[in-house]
Task: inverse folding
Protein backbone atom coordinates (compact mmCIF):
# COMPACT_ATOMS: atom_id res chain seq x y z
CA UNK A 1 0.00 0.00 0.00
CA UNK A 2 1.41 3.37 -1.06
CA UNK A 3 1.95 5.92 1.64
CA UNK A 4 -0.02 9.12 1.26
CA UNK A 5 1.80 12.39 1.71
CA UNK A 6 0.30 15.68 2.75
CA UNK A 7 1.02 18.50 0.33
CA UNK A 8 0.57 22.23 0.20
CA UNK A 9 0.37 24.44 -2.85
CA UNK A 10 3.17 26.95 -3.45
CA UNK A 11 3.65 29.06 -6.59
CA UNK A 12 7.17 29.92 -7.71
CA UNK A 13 7.77 33.05 -9.79
CA UNK A 14 10.84 33.03 -11.96
CA UNK A 15 11.34 36.37 -13.69
CA UNK A 16 14.33 36.39 -15.98
CA UNK A 17 15.93 38.22 -18.89
CA UNK A 18 17.81 36.79 -21.82
CA UNK A 19 20.03 38.29 -24.48
CA UNK A 20 18.28 38.55 -27.84
CA UNK A 21 21.38 38.26 -29.98
CA UNK A 22 21.66 39.53 -33.56
CA UNK A 23 18.81 37.54 -35.09
CA UNK A 24 16.09 38.30 -32.56
CA UNK A 25 17.22 41.92 -32.27
CA UNK A 26 16.75 42.40 -36.02
CA UNK A 27 13.41 40.57 -35.90
CA UNK A 28 12.06 42.78 -33.09
CA UNK A 29 13.52 45.97 -34.58
CA UNK A 30 11.60 45.06 -37.73
CA UNK A 31 8.33 44.83 -35.81
CA UNK A 32 8.92 48.37 -34.52
CA UNK A 33 8.91 49.44 -38.21
CA UNK A 34 5.82 47.29 -38.92
CA UNK A 35 7.93 44.79 -40.81
CA UNK A 36 7.88 41.06 -40.08
CA UNK A 37 11.20 39.44 -40.96
CA UNK A 38 11.70 35.76 -41.52
CA UNK A 39 14.71 33.71 -42.47
CA UNK A 40 14.73 31.46 -45.51
CA UNK A 41 17.01 28.46 -45.62
CA UNK A 42 19.15 28.54 -48.77
CA UNK A 43 19.35 24.72 -48.68
CA UNK A 44 15.70 23.58 -48.24
CA UNK A 45 13.97 26.93 -49.04
CA UNK A 46 11.81 26.80 -45.90
CA UNK A 47 10.97 30.17 -44.36
CA UNK A 48 10.61 30.63 -40.61
CA UNK A 49 9.06 33.37 -38.51
CA UNK A 50 10.26 34.50 -36.09
CA UNK A 51 13.62 34.61 -37.84
CA UNK A 52 16.03 31.86 -36.81
CA UNK A 53 19.79 31.72 -36.57
CA UNK A 54 19.71 28.36 -38.35
CA UNK A 55 17.27 26.13 -40.23
CA UNK A 56 15.60 23.76 -37.74
CA UNK A 57 15.12 21.21 -40.54
CA UNK A 58 18.62 21.16 -42.08
CA UNK A 59 20.54 22.54 -39.09
CA UNK A 60 22.45 24.79 -41.45
CA UNK A 61 23.11 28.44 -40.70
CA UNK A 62 22.91 29.29 -44.39
CA UNK A 63 19.83 31.47 -44.22
CA UNK A 64 18.81 34.77 -45.76
CA UNK A 65 16.48 37.46 -44.45
CA UNK A 66 13.14 37.73 -46.20
CA UNK A 67 10.27 40.18 -45.61
CA UNK A 68 7.02 38.45 -44.70
CA UNK A 69 3.57 39.94 -45.30
CA UNK A 70 1.63 40.66 -42.08
CA UNK A 71 -1.11 38.24 -43.05
CA UNK A 72 -1.76 34.55 -42.94
CA UNK A 73 -4.25 31.85 -42.10
CA UNK A 74 -5.39 30.28 -38.88
CA UNK A 75 -4.03 26.81 -38.18
CA UNK A 76 -5.66 26.45 -34.75
CA UNK A 77 -6.79 28.61 -31.86
CA UNK A 78 -8.08 28.48 -28.32
CA UNK A 79 -10.20 30.77 -26.21
CA UNK A 80 -8.51 31.40 -22.87
CA UNK A 81 -10.99 32.04 -20.07
CA UNK A 82 -8.97 30.96 -17.06
CA UNK A 83 -6.55 33.15 -15.17
CA UNK A 84 -3.08 31.95 -14.34
CA UNK A 85 0.21 33.36 -13.17
CA UNK A 86 2.19 35.24 -15.79
CA UNK A 87 -0.61 36.10 -18.20
CA UNK A 88 0.15 39.19 -20.26
CA UNK A 89 -3.48 40.24 -20.33
CA UNK A 90 -6.64 39.36 -18.51
CA UNK A 91 -8.94 36.74 -20.05
CA UNK A 92 -10.97 36.20 -22.09
CA UNK A 93 -8.66 36.28 -25.09
CA UNK A 94 -7.84 34.11 -28.07
CA UNK A 95 -4.40 32.74 -28.80
CA UNK A 96 -3.82 31.23 -32.22
CA UNK A 97 -1.29 29.38 -34.28
CA UNK A 98 -1.07 31.32 -37.55
CA UNK A 99 0.79 30.37 -40.70
CA UNK A 100 1.98 33.62 -42.20
CA UNK A 101 1.86 33.83 -46.01
CA UNK A 102 4.94 32.33 -47.61
CA UNK A 103 6.23 30.69 -44.43
CA UNK A 104 6.61 27.06 -43.43
CA UNK A 105 5.88 27.24 -39.74
CA UNK A 106 3.36 28.39 -37.18
CA UNK A 107 3.47 31.75 -35.46
CA UNK A 108 1.70 32.21 -32.12
CA UNK A 109 -0.19 35.42 -31.46
CA UNK A 110 -3.49 36.82 -30.28
CA UNK A 111 -6.65 37.02 -32.35
CA UNK A 112 -8.57 40.24 -31.76
CA UNK A 113 -11.38 42.29 -33.17
CA UNK A 114 -13.89 39.52 -32.44
CA UNK A 115 -16.46 38.98 -29.72
CA UNK A 116 -15.60 36.09 -27.43
CA UNK A 117 -18.99 35.55 -25.77
CA UNK A 118 -20.59 33.39 -28.45
CA UNK A 119 -18.46 30.30 -29.06
CA UNK A 120 -20.61 29.17 -32.03
CA UNK A 121 -20.03 32.46 -33.85
CA UNK A 122 -16.33 32.27 -33.00
CA UNK A 123 -16.07 28.80 -34.50
CA UNK A 124 -17.73 30.07 -37.69
CA UNK A 125 -15.45 33.08 -37.93
CA UNK A 126 -12.20 31.38 -36.95
CA UNK A 127 -12.29 28.24 -39.03
CA UNK A 128 -9.04 26.54 -39.93
CA UNK A 129 -7.64 28.40 -42.94
CA UNK A 130 -9.49 31.65 -42.17
CA UNK A 131 -7.44 34.65 -43.29
CA UNK A 132 -6.10 37.05 -40.67
CA UNK A 133 -4.09 40.24 -40.82
CA UNK A 134 -1.81 41.90 -38.25
CA UNK A 135 -3.13 44.91 -36.39
CA UNK A 136 -0.19 46.99 -35.23
CA UNK A 137 0.04 48.52 -31.80
CA UNK A 138 0.24 52.32 -32.13
CA UNK A 139 2.99 52.34 -29.46
CA UNK A 140 5.98 50.25 -30.52
CA UNK A 141 8.62 48.85 -28.16
CA UNK A 142 10.46 46.51 -30.52
CA UNK A 143 8.83 43.45 -28.99
CA UNK A 144 6.25 40.87 -30.01
CA UNK A 145 3.41 43.12 -28.79
CA UNK A 146 4.18 45.66 -31.51
CA UNK A 147 1.66 43.43 -33.25
CA UNK A 148 -1.40 44.05 -31.08
CA UNK A 149 -3.20 41.03 -32.54
CA UNK A 150 -4.30 39.42 -35.78
CA UNK A 151 -7.82 40.19 -36.96
CA UNK A 152 -9.97 38.17 -39.35
CA UNK A 153 -10.02 39.54 -42.89
CA UNK A 154 -13.54 39.95 -44.24
ZN1 LIG B 1 16.71 24.06 -44.36
Result:
Amino acid sequence: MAKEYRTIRNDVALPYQWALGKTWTRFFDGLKEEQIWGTKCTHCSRTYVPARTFCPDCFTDRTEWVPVKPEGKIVSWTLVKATYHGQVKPPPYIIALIQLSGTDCGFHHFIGGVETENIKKLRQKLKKGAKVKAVWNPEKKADIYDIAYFAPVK
Q: What stands out?
A: The chain has two helices and eight strands. The first strand starts at residue 36 and ends at 41. The radius of gyration is 19 Å.
